[in-house]
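Need the bound structure for adenosine-2'-5'-diphosphate, inputs here:
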Amino acid sequence: MEFYKLQSGGRMPALGYGTFLATGLELEKSLNIALETGYRFFDTAIGYNNEQIIGKVLNEWISAGKVTREELFILTKLPSFGNRPEEVDTYIKQSLQDLRLDYIDMYLIHLPIGLFKNGKSLYSDMELDKSTDHLKIWKKMEDQVVNGRAKSIGLSNFNIKQVQRILDNCKIRPESLQNENHLYFQSPEVVQFCKLNNIILIAYSSLGMKSFRELIGISWNNKQLPEMLENDVLVKVANKHGKTPAQALLRFINQKGMSVIPKSTNPDRIVENFQIFDFKLDTEDMDALCSLDNGESGRIVRFTMIKNIEDHPEYPF
Ligand code: A2P
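Answer from helper R.:
Posting the output first, comments after.
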């Protein structure tokens, strides 16, 4: 495993296990396989509705002495329906309780826009809260580091301007930014910005989120792009190294300095995705894969399931 050093003194594994869309017994089984495989970084969010299951499995592993709390790196997020300064304490406490932990390793603001929950469970039924004030929320995020509930704090789905505003006004810097990043959406400007500002970029959807795209029925803005893991150039690079396309893609993103959090509930693929540090892509491979970037039209996730989201003053895209 490779690690990135955090300013707060800890270190973040360069590879984690993503849990979005996974829940129930399937997640429980997958988490056990992931832990047996060696994953120690787990990415979740209140919005994924799976923290209680993650908490149960982690607790079993810690209680059995198979892993220590210090070996684990747990990342979770303030939900967009809690994006108000007075709600940060409530939601981090809920995560700690559900995850059965006394601290979170990395706590992120999940989205730059706010919502009113009003008893609704579906994002599509929630109303926009257009008064979202990042600086006031960030101050409460900083409090979580001071009071020990979070070791480090960061952002997710923020654009460069929004991150810069926090950097310009913070006492504790955002240590990570979790954004979409994959073969067709490489955001070189965000990669560069994070590098310059010592922020670890955590790439989500790095394998192309096939199951999510099927669920919501989207292709890449109707562009006729080949399925990501079947892309000829990627397949060729993978074959050259005796690796699978998924392994080559994860390594590609990792070699650009990002942390990756692939999602899988398939036992073989959970193991496959962990084996990405025993080979290195050369400049020719990296250049070939970089040339497949499709810019903005390669973006998959736009949060359009949230009604009128584009009308929010902090809509990031
Ligand atoms: P599965 O759970 O059946 O393995 P992303 O992390 O970009 O959201 O991608 C997740 C999707 O990619 C899931 O549909 C997952 O399906 C699939 N996936 C995960 N790992 C691999 C792999 N090594 N090869 C092919 N597909 C994979």
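Comments: The pocket of adenosine-2'-5'-diphosphate is lined by residues 18, 205-212, 229, 244, 246, 262-266, 269, 272-273 (CB under 6 Å). The radius of gyration is 19 Å.
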